[in-house]
Amino acid sequence: MRLENKVAIVTGGSSGIGEWTVREMVKEGAKVVIADINEELGQKLADELNQDGKHTVFQFVDVSKEDDIVSMVNRAEAEFGKLDIIFSNAGIGAMHPSTELDYEDWQRIISINLDGVFLCAKHAIKAMQKTGGGSVINCSSILGHVGQAATAAYTAAKGGVTNLTRALAVEYAKENIRVNAICPGYVDTPILDGVEPEMKEALISLHPIGRLGRPEEIAKAAVFLASDEASFVIGANLLVDGGYTAQ
Known about the structure:
Number of domains: 1
Radius of gyration: 17 Å
Structural class: alpha/beta
Number of helices: 7
CATH class: Alpha Beta
């Protein structure tokens, strides 16, 4: 098992990409803190995965609040003794013409999608410094590499995550703390449930592979970056996008 004896945190871990990442990490031997604002789904997932032993705990966290993040990291150390991995996956999406985007909405998107990633990294790295290393994985996006109309706040946040990843990677590489990011294309998760069929088909058409991503495909990329197989991967923004950015 690639993550045996490792301890991980997955933010946004109750559903979608986060849920699948929790499942894959547990399958690979990790103990995982499921961190999310959705307590019902998070606890349900923890209970399911703990049927044959204590593999997970649920921790409520709002990643826009630094105190919540500190508590989350402390919980990982208290429950499992250390922290080796964090996957900062929590985020929100929104589409608004920029001239109609309220500043409060801009701030909320930046706060969760960029500030939250920085704060998670900040406090996870402090924990990893105690044990001599670890893996920080940020969830960026194809929209951290290319632009798209009506996504100014989201695109700005993800572009920030892309370059934040590089800066942190350079800063902490010599401490055996690897910082990388995953940049997914559009993935078939509950966040797209409300999208009109015509819009969904349009999104599919943007991917040369001819379909949307599956959450387990992103999860497997996260497991790779978390594992020792990625020991020489530092500062990468790994595109897992079905060819979206290649065309």
